[in-house]
Amino acid sequence: MTATSDRDFSPAEHAELALLLEVAGTPKPGNVDRTHDLDDLRFEHFLAGSVGSRRGLQLAEEGARVGEAFEHGVAGMSQQRGGNTQFGCLLLLVTLVRAAASDDHELTPEGVTAVVESTTVADAADFYRAFEHVDVAVDDPPADAPDLDVRRGAGAIPTLEERGLTLADVMAMSEERDGNAREWTGGFARTFATAESILADDGPVLDRASRAFVDLLAEEPDTLVATQHGPEVAREVSRRAAEVQGDPEAVERLADEFVAEGLNPGTTADITAAALFVALERGLPV
Amino acid sequence: MTATSDRDFSPAEHAELALLLEVAGTPKPGNVDRTHDLDDLRFEHFLAGSVGSRRGLQLAEEGARVGEAFEHGVAGMSQQRGGNTQFGCLLLLVTLVRAAASDDHELTPEGVTAVVESTTVADAADFYRAFEHVDVAVDDPPADAPDLDVRRGAGAIPTLEERGLTLADVMAMSEERDGNAREWTGGFARTFATAESILADDGPVLDRASRAFVDLLAEEPDTLVATQHGPEVAREVSRRAAEVQGDPEAVERLADEFVAEGLNPGTTADITAAALFVALERGLPV
Q: From which domain of life does this come (chains A, B) (predicted)?
């Protein structure tokens, strides 16, 4: 048997694998995982979403603009009947892949921030176009910026151009309400911290993914839960996650409860996937 | 939401998705699936194997020689610590992808047979080289051809060249002992028949994958089980599969039994993956 190394995977391959490991990691309370489906959103939709996402991840690896890579990734991800599976994951992953694959940047908070700061109005336009591929759960836009409602899709592009807003600017406008935008504007702080926790953990990678998810959820309210159910429910979800940390059977029970209650901490899953990517790039064995 | 179609996946994307749907399909008695791991061969190894396989599947789509695509697929598939996950699947899939993607062939028994018949000595050499990437469970070579033992890897290439053996010739020499070789030499008969069964079935695709696997196993002894445990055990495994056909709870019990007894019908899983690919190409919705 020839000696081989995980390091032989490219950033785009690691990113697709991160999507798959994230959805397979179980239990991840409230989310689709290896042993849980939701009513109309099932495990196989995430498998197909991962395969389709690869197009955009590959573009990011090859040096395409972040927005272009993202829009193509979302278009590919949407080629299944479950709807939105990995929109938020992709927003984080294309940026991280771009930093990992670039000669000019490194996969560090500074490197990925440089990628964020390099985005342009064209990237912002691509981001808005991506919303036309799939329904995404979003909050209302800021009261002073109704023209920038993402639900307008490409219809918002003239406003972006008029105001000269880059994708980094758009993310900065959402950071209060969206945990993924906060990763963008804050050097992917939770992503890199969680990657180190995953590397320092032991046991099978799917167990590590589950623990990372619960720790992230206990640490900070999930912004998708806040969007769908309000901030108090999101805080309560995090309190309940904190109560079961370190107790696998209690986590399993919480998973059944959250699914039954329709509580879906999707942003926490996005950051888990991003952290798995960084961990894979830093040598996490599979 | 923009209307999209599964048909937008390319053959290489469909083939990678087929690998993922195959391993996720549960219960698949004796094999790794969404709810079963073996001791040292776990679900995540198959996820990584699927991602790594894409390199070879992409080469096949782009028109590379079947052997070249196969060897690169196996090299990528082997970038995980579980060992051999999808060697047999890839042998079938690169050939089917080549037929599906080619302007000269179609994804039919005739089209794929034309791809088989186009293989050369160089493809046979690639096939032997692929055995150097990963340990594969194989039978002893024919008594009259010890120089063609696949365990010799590239060491067998001079003999292949001397005797002018193509990959189709090598498969013909193995068809008695290997169900995948029999697909190669027989127009992928079980693959195409099972694809039609999967399309005619209903319900979630992972349930269809499980039923297709059990039906294939009940129909014909698994040649990997025969290699590892002898032909009588392989026949008994098929008899036991036939007893539980159509009874999901009994299939679930059989899955636990086969895992406990170390019975791993891997060739049947290979043909299930190949059938899922053909079904996806023919419009199976995910």
A: Archaea
At residue B36, what are phi and psi to the nearest 5 degrees?
-130, 135
**Taking a contact as any Cβ pair under 8 Å apart, which residues of chain A between 176 and 195 contact chain B?**
none
| Tens-place pLDDT, residues B187-209 | 999 999 999 999 999 999 999 99
Q: Does the beta-carbon distance from A79 to B9 stay under 8 Å?
A: yes
Nearest to A134 among B1, B13, B42 (CB): B1
> From the list A21, A79, A135, which residue is nearest B1 (CB)?
A135
Residue A160 CA neighbour count, 13 Å, CB half: 27
Hey, which residues does B33 pair with through a beta bridge? B36
Distance CA A86, CA A242 (A): 25
Burial category of B81 from C-beta neighbours within 10 Å (exposed 0-12, middle 13-18, buried 19 and up): middle
Are B4 and A34 within 8 A, CB to CB? Answer: no
pLDDT in tens, A61-70: 999 999 999 9
How many of the other CB atoms lie within 10 Å of CB of B172?
Answer: 16
Does A1 reach chain B within 8 Å, measured CB to CB?
A: yes
Q: With beta carbons less than 8 A apart as the criterion, state whether A21 and B44 touch.
A: yes
Closest residue by Cα to residue B54 from A272, A58, A284: A58
A206 touches chain B (CB under 8 A): yes
Answer whether B179's CB lies under 8 Å from B170's CB: no
- Interatomic CA distance for residues A96 and B232, integer angstroms: 53
* Closest alpha carbon to A102 in A138, A139, A65: A65
Q: What is the pLDDT of residues B133-152, one digit of tens each?
A: 999 988 888 777 888 999 99
Contacts of A24 in chain B (CB under 8 A): 43-44, 47
Pick from B142, B139, B168: nearest CA to B66:
B168
Q: Which of B4, B21, B133 sits opposite A47 (nearest CB)?
A: B21
Question: Is the Cβ pair A79, B4 closer than 8 Å?
Answer: yes
Cβ–Cβ gap A80/B6 under 8 Å: yes
Closest by CA position to A255, among listed A30, A22, A38: A30
pLDDT of A4 higher than 50: no
Contacts of A207 in chain B (CB under 8 A): none
User: CATH homologous superfamily for A10-119+178-281?
Assistant: Triphosphoribosyl-dephospho-CoA protein (1.10.4200.10)
- Give me the percent of chain A exceeding a pLDDT of 70: 98
Q: Are A218 and A225 in contact (CB under 8 A)?
A: no
| 3-class DSSP string for B135-194 | CCCCCCCCCCCHHHCHHHHHHHHHHHHHHCCCHHHHHHHHCCCCHHHHHHHCCCHHHHHH
Which residues in chain B are contacts of A9 at CB distance < 8 A? 51-52, 79
What architecture (CATH level 2) is domain B9-281? Orthogonal Bundle (1.10)
DSSP secondary structure letters along A53-114: HHHHHHHHHTT--HHHHHHHHHHHHTSSTT--SSHHHHHHHHHHHHHHH-SS--SSHHHHHH
Q: A242-266: buried (b, 16+ CB within 10 Å) or exposed (e) per residue?
A: eebeeeeebbbebbeebbeeebbbb
